[in-house]
Amino acid sequence: GIVLVAINPYEQLPIYEQDVIYAYSGQNMGDMDPHIFAVAEEAYKQMARDEKNQSIIVSGESGAGKTVSAKYAMRFFATVGGSASETNIEAKVLASSPIMEAIGNAKTTRNDNSSRFGKYIQIGFDKRYHIIGANMRTYLLEKSRVVFQAEDERNYHIFYQLCASASLPEFKDLGLSKYFCI
């Protein structure tokens, strides 16, 4: 298959804007510079041509930009699939509840808010190849952080948030007081 190696520049670049999406839309792989939009366009074209499911695997180290790359691919699909302004599918699919982020994110030496979740995102298209819905499944990758963390790293954010809120009246209702030194 096609492999794209990308790095996280840790800043917004103009290479992910709407005009760039349109530049890659309809192009053949290799006709333009390597880009997440080229990979997304190839998957989109093959889905339409072969009428078969396609997969894009985004993999990398902590802080590499996997979640951002997935957002850009979904923005591409929403734009070329005619859904970008109608449903804002990117925001709906990737909107994580603050509770889930607190439970699944931790401070690493590379990133203060690193997701420790794996994500599987399914995007559904209709017969005209417009996005009609999406489903995101998450699974916790680093259960070891519950009992251990490396030097200069923090455990999952939820533990620090619970400690900070242990003196609040609502905390008693959680039934966790016996686990915290308050």
From TrEMBL:
Keywords: Actin-binding, ATP-binding, Motor protein, Myosin, Nucleotide-binding. This is MYO5B protein. Belongs to the TRAFAC class myosin-kinesin ATPase superfamily. Myosin family. Pfam families: Myosin_head (PF00063). SUPFAM superfamilies: P-loop containing nucleoside triphosphate hydrolases. The keyword Membrane does not apply. GO terms for biological process: actin filament organization. It comes from the Eukaryota. GO terms for molecular function: actin filament binding; ATP binding; microfilament motor activity. InterPro entries: Kinesin_motor_dom_sf, Myosin_head_motor_dom-like, P-loop_NTPase. The keyword rRNA-binding does not apply. ATP binds at G60, E61, S62, G63, A64, G65, K66, T67. It comes from Pelecanoides urinatrix. SMART domains: MYSc. Residues 1-182 form the Myosin motor domain. GO terms for cellular component: cytoplasm; membrane; myosin complex.
